[in-house]
Amino acid sequence: MPSMRIQMMEIRRGLDRADLSASPSDLHLLADWFRRDVALVAKITQLPGGWALGMTIRTLVHRSCDRCLGEVELPVEIEDRCVVLEYGSGVADEEEDRLILVAPEQEWVELDQVVRDALRLSQPEYFVCREDCAGLCPQCGSNMNEGDCGCRPLAPDSPLQALARLKRPNRSQ
């Protein structure tokens, strides 16, 4: 059963704001990443044939840093928008990314999928605990953010290293 939904009767009566909350399991989000409830504030504006929902989605994301493997919990705040239109209204903006169509007899507008999509799309490709994260030592695996491990630096890995081992011609002759 959807957990983030607004009653259509209230929207039709002029509801202008909805505050909703759901657990990550109710929204079918990854339990490893999303461990805190997701809060949604929707500001509702009347449109011809429907309503625009300006949404603010807030939660905390728990991940491992891709450089140092440390556990980090970071706040997420997403501003998003969707349009709710009634079937047969004849009004549809083809440029609108998130469009929810509701039948005239429909009791609820369900926002679970919109929230889920926004949260998944907001996740970065690479997750780091901080911009200057030093990562792990490639030799011993120590976390370099906690201090120097004492390992000697490796020689630079270059495709031209093989040329350094070639014999050099004797130019004195």
What is the topology?
Blueprint: E1 5-7, H1 8-12, E2 17-22, E3 38-47, E4 50-64, E5 71-86, E6 99-102, E7 108-110, H2 112-122, H3 161-164
Parallel strand pairs: 5-6
Antiparallel strand pairs: 1-7, 2-3, 3-4, 4-5
Helix and strand composition category: mainly beta
Largest sheet: 5 strands, mixed
Question: Termini separation (Å)?
Answer: 88 Å
% residues in beta strands: 25-35%
In DSSP terms (H or I, runs of 4 or more residues), the helix count works out at 3
Query: Strand tally, please?
Result: 7
Order of helices and strands: EHEEEEEEHH
Shape: elongated
Strand order of the largest sheet: 2-3-4-5-6
The Cα radius of gyration reads 26 Å
The mean pLDDT is: 86
Helix content: 10-25%
Spans with pLDDT under 50 lasting ≥5 residues?
none
Would you give an account of this structure?
The chain is mainly beta and 173 residues long. Helices cover 12% and strands 33% of the residues. The chain contains three helices and seven strands. The mean pLDDT is 86.
